[in-house]
Amino acid sequence: MGVPPCGTDLVHEALSATSPTYHANRALLDSVWHHGAALASSDSMVVYTIPLVVHVIHRGSPIGVEENISDAQILSAVHALNEDFRKVAGSNGDGSGVDVFVEFELAKRTPEDLPTTGIVRVDGSEVPGYAEHGIAAINALPGADQFEVKSLTTWLGDDYLNVFVVPEINGNNAGGGIQGFAYTGPTGDVRDGVTLLYNVIGTEGTLKPSRSLNRTLTHEVGHHLSLYHTFYETNGCGDEDDCLAEGDFVCDTPATTENASCSLGTCPDAQLENYMDYTPTLCRNTFTAGQRQRMRTCLETVRSSLLESLGAVPVVDVDLIPFAVNASTVCTPTWHPVLSVQNQGDLPAPGATVHWSVNGINLSPVTFPTPIPAGATVDLTLPEKLLIGTMTEWTFTVTLPDGSNDNFPGNDTLFQTLSYTGDDAWTLTLTTDYFGNESSWAVTDSTGATLWAGDDYGFGANTYVSSACIPPGCHTLTVEDSGGDGLALGGSLLLQNATGDTLAHIPQGTNFGGSITFDACAATPAIYNPWEGNNDDEDGNSEGEDGNPDGSGPCDTPCPGDLNGDGFIQAADLLDFLVVFGLPCSP
Predict the structure, then answer these.
(1) Which of 177, 352, 395, 536 is the most buried (most CB within 10 A)?
(2) Residue 93 to residue 59: CA distance in whole angstroms
């Protein structure tokens, strides 16, 4: 596998297994490929669907905290993986390569034929070394034994593509070093699958700034389906005598050594945009026709059981699953929950009712009567609620509109821990000029610590929008351009706070040289007062035109007692009051 040069980031590795099964499968695939690698026309290609299960192996953190990543982050990863493999028009996967005609779906049934979301969470801290160093890809370095860790949760690789999400690899503290690893053929044991750090998977959630396009997962799935690095066993830039038996065994990936730049290749014909190189993730967007055929040959031979798997086939007629909610951390003291619900059944659902609670107090159920087709995912927007304290425990349970359970109630409930930071919500909109790769920015506090940053932008004029919770106080925004001409070629920047005030602005086409700084202060958000309405009275009492003084409803005008906004003052409003009881009113 080799040790990376000093100062570089060993992004991914395809590992060699030692089992006879692994070597037999790999040799069979290479032999089949060498003797029959004629490229098929895309017109005749069947779309292969692979069931995928994500195993989040955490160390005891609540869901959505640190390595125990949210369902939403996992869903974004599967979505982005499909964009890359299907070369979806207009997406980040719409590059210069080909459509692989391979798709991935989160599993809908377990090996025991029970319904599942395709997401499994286990605490791996009981395995010696895991809590301190994570999993070991290289046994000579710190980390828990792969067999012990993956034995906690694996569904084996015959019927599923297993993705293992871990906090560390070989004690790297989720920083530099190995970001993920996979095997280029079936191992025949619990190791089979893709292993990734928690902060390199998906396009939203807890991610490193330079790992927000999910390319690490795409790269490692390429390995899982038999692809080697484009620079595999290549020592120079010359032509290969037999491209099917040398280098990466693919003829339409030119011979190259390892690349690390989006603009400067180590060989004249290097494909810097290839998913299987080590170039920055922003410039990778390509599988070649030869790579496509090698992956499909893998699926048709040594991994053919994946094509026969029932893992992606629903078990029951109607199965509503609350997959994710739109936030795990919010800045403002109110939250508008958006619940993502999927019907994993074979038949349409007549709609859904969401039963929800916070800190054990039930809130008014909300019914959504619109039918949900089989296999469809819908976003259900719930009423805005006030947040109390720094952490609140929310529960969302989905039933059919009449209140009855679906055909499998075991997966109808989602638990979400929500953190209210009490910070200012900042939004930064950056439009890069043509040399976007030269632009970077960072927000630092009074001690010089970085609170928020962005870099690793690609070539071309593109607009990037980033949001963050910034603690109260005065901070410094520093915008840099390594080319020394600012945003002179048409770029611009705008930084705004939660109320839409402009904190920093670089007009379009400004040449600020190599660097420019702004002082920007974050405010403490005002406390929301649930009793404020259209009161004309200084004492805040509901009198006159403000509502119905006898406490009955409906209200002809917005009234402060109608906390759930349903037009009536009734018992449901009392439940909402109990949630906010004890909160000081704003002056």
Answers:
(1) 352
(2) 33
